[in-house]
Amino acid sequence: MHVQPLVIANWKMNGSRELVNAMSSALGNQSALTEQVQVVICPPATLLPALAEQASTAGIACGAQTASAHAGGAHTGELSLSLLQEFGVSYVLVGHSERRQHYGETDADVAAKTKAIIAAGCTAVVCVGETAQQREQEQTKAVIGEQLAAALADLPDNAATKLVVAYEPVWAIGTGLTASPEQAQDVHAFIRENLKKLIKTDADLIPLLYGGSVKSDNAASLFAEQDIDGGLIGGASLVADDFIAICSAA
Ligand code: PEP
C-alpha cells in the first residue's frame, strides 16, 4: 500500500433510509477502523441528506455516483457539484462502466467531469476497465491506457491530491467473477506507471482501488498486493457486516 487505505461503497440504485441508518451506526461503532481506513459511501442522491447528517459521527465521507460537468442551467435531471456539495459530498465517481455502457458516457464526458470535480474541490474517482472481449484479445492495457489518457488530459499540476483511480474490469462487476490478485496487481502497476506520465506532481500518492465482485472472503488477498490501496465495492457494500469485513481487510 502506498497511501492511507480507502474503501468506497457504490450502492448504485439500491438502499434506503434504513440502510443509511444501519450502516452509519455500524460504522460509528468502528472508530478504530475508520481512523485507519478512509471509508466513503456513495448512495443514490436522494439518500445524501440522510447520510450527510450522520457521516461525521460515523467517521465516513459522502460520495456521489456521478455529477454534471455543468455548473447550472437547463440540464433536466442532472446534479451539479455545488448542489452535491451542499449535502457534504467530497468524492464523486466518474466513468463507472455502467454509465459508460448504459448512459452513453464517453471518454470526453469523463474528462470534462473529472476536471469539473477537481475544480470544485472534490475528489474524482475515475473508473477504468476492460470488457471480457478486450481481455481475451489482449487489449487490456491498451484500453486502460487510452481511458486514462483521455480522462486525465489537461488536469492541473496538483491534481494528484484530488484524484483516485479505480480499476474495475467490466467482466468482474456484479458477476461474481473477480480478477486474481496477480491480474489486478499487473494492471495496477501499469496504471501507476501511466499516472507518473500523466500527472506531473505526486502521482505516487494517487490511491488505486480495485473493484469487481470484491467480497469479505477475497478482499484481503487483493488488498495485500503492492499497488492496490483499497476497493470500490458494489453488492457487498449493501450489508453492514460484509462491508465492515472488507474495510477491515484494507
Ligand atoms: C461496482 O459497481 O463498482 C462494483 C465493483 O460492483 P460489485 O462489487 O457488485 O462487482
TrEMBL record:
Q: Which GO terms describe its cellular component?
A: cytosol
What's the catalysed reaction? D-glyceraldehyde 3-phosphate = dihydroxyacetone phosphate
Point out the signal peptide segment: none
Q: In which pathway does it act?
A: Carbohydrate degradation; glycolysis; D-glyceraldehyde 3-phosphate from glycerone phosphate: step 1/1; Carbohydrate biosynthesis; gluconeogenesis; Carbohydrate metabolism; erythritol degradation
**EC number(s) given by UniProt:** 5.3.1.1
Q: Which InterPro entries match?
A: Aldolase_TIM (IPR013785), TIM_sf (IPR035990), TrioseP_Isoase_bac/euk (IPR022896), Triosephosphate_isomerase (IPR000652), Triosephosphate_isomerase_AS (IPR020861)
Q: Where is the active site?
A: 96, 168
Q: Which superkingdom heads the taxonomic lineage of this protein's source?
A: Bacteria
Mind listing the UniProt keywords for this protein, alphabetically? Cytoplasm, Gluconeogenesis, Glycolysis, Isomerase
Q: Which GO terms describe its biological process?
A: gluconeogenesis; glyceraldehyde-3-phosphate biosynthetic process; glycerol catabolic process; glycolytic process
Q: Which residues bind substrate?
A: 10-12, 174, 213, 234-235
**PANTHER family (alphabetical):** TRIOSEPHOSPHATE ISOMERASE (PTHR21139)
Q: Name the job this protein performs.
A: Involved in the gluconeogenesis. Catalyzes stereospecifically the conversion of dihydroxyacetone phosphate (DHAP) to D-glyceraldehyde-3-phosphate (G3P).
On subunit structure and binding partners, the annotation says: Homodimer.
NCBIfam families referenced in this protein's UniProt entry, alphabetically: tim
Listed name of the protein: Triosephosphate isomerase
Can you name the source organism?
A: Pseudidiomarina planktonica
Q: Which gene encodes it?
A: tpiA
